[in-house]
């Protein structure tokens, strides 16, 4: 796994020997590119730090909400307080729920392996986007962000690596939050190796689980700081509340993908897709399973279901928020119902009662590693357009399915054009 793929590329294209032979202009060009790459990576590090900070800020922001409720409650006249005498108990309960959610979030962050060195600083003075950076607007210019995500494979863990470029996306469930969220990650990607990688890339042994079953991502050389040094408070950023809202949004979205409570909704949107795939590929063989790509895979459940159906399934997703979470569930869940979260506590609307709002949800409803996945299951981080425009993707997919993704396009024709190029002759898309 080498998220700093861009750096490797640069080194290959501009080896010292070549530089010695090339003219001054080429040298300048090479130096400029290197400088650009360094800057891009530093920007990426800052962007990822901001996302991690949003996760880390969750308990504090949630506590602020409870304090606000308490202040409002205290301002009520005694007679009205008496009518709401159960409120202090509700506030205590809310704090317990926040604590449980925070435990899940911190577990998720501890399991996350940043694909880049998060301690690097941006040399703002060298860059013309200085002002944008000072304003915290890290996303306004074309830039690359790297990301990687591991995903399950029946034989063990696989890691995918992407180089990234700027891009946007959308999330029907949290449209408002996504306005900024979408800029967090996008990518020109490099796919993970799988036993039958549709891209034809060779498998790298260090990307696999070792014989003792250890997650090799932990020992991956390109993963910076396996000891969570990157969680050091000095690396954290002050983030706007809207970023923390994205974390709340993820907590809610988990229910649709990974809780028993989300089954009905999954049946409504995933089942027709799964039935269609089943009908279109009736004679799937386990020796040579058909491949299926799921762009905008969100938290990864549909990609997992497709894998369990007997396809070499690859989810593609460009949001770090989503990827950090799906990677945790896919790769680190030890049993079904391992974690308890309280997804509904942050909204005071559309709840039938306090107990409705404060109810717990167990996740995941299935143990992903025991879901009967087909070898080759993977998740690829990065912008769909960047990743799948790569020539190595042409004509390699038997099927491509999307669920609430097509309308995320800046240019829907571009999505359809890419889909038609990367499908095999006679391949299907739905
Ligand atoms: C509305 S959500 C749907 C997620 C998932 N398919 C589901 O049904 O739950 C759209 C997803 O697409 C992702 N996305 C948007 N644009 C993308 C792009 N260009 N490349 C990769 N992912 C993208 C978003 O981050 C988001 O997770």
Automatic annotation (TrEMBL):
<keyword id="KW-0489">Methyltransferase</keyword>
<keyword id="KW-0949">S-adenosyl-L-methionine</keyword>
<feature type="region of interest" description="Disordered">
    <location>
        <begin position="169"/>
        <end position="216"/>
    </location>
</feature>
<feature type="region of interest" description="Disordered">
    <location>
        <begin position="1"/>
        <end position="32"/>
    </location>
</feature>
<dbReference type="GO" id="GO:0030735">
    <property type="term" value="F:carnosine N-methyltransferase activity"/>
</dbReference>
<feature type="compositionally biased region" description="Basic and acidic residues">
    <location>
        <begin position="1"/>
        <end position="16"/>
    </location>
</feature>
<dbReference type="InterPro" id="IPR029063">
    <property type="entry name" value="SAM-dependent_MTases_sf"/>
</dbReference>
<keyword id="KW-0808">Transferase</keyword>
<protein>
    <recommendedName>
        <fullName>carnosine N-methyltransferase</fullName>
        <ecNumber>2.1.1.22</ecNumber>
    </recommendedName>
</protein>
<feature type="compositionally biased region" description="Basic and acidic residues">
    <location>
        <begin position="170"/>
        <end position="194"/>
    </location>
</feature>
<dbReference type="GO" id="GO:0032259">
    <property type="term" value="P:methylation"/>
</dbReference>
<dbReference type="Pfam" id="PF07942">
    <property type="entry name" value="CARME"/>
</dbReference>
<dbReference type="InterPro" id="IPR012901">
    <property type="entry name" value="CARME"/>
</dbReference>
<comment type="similarity">
    <text>Belongs to the carnosine N-methyltransferase family.</text>
</comment>
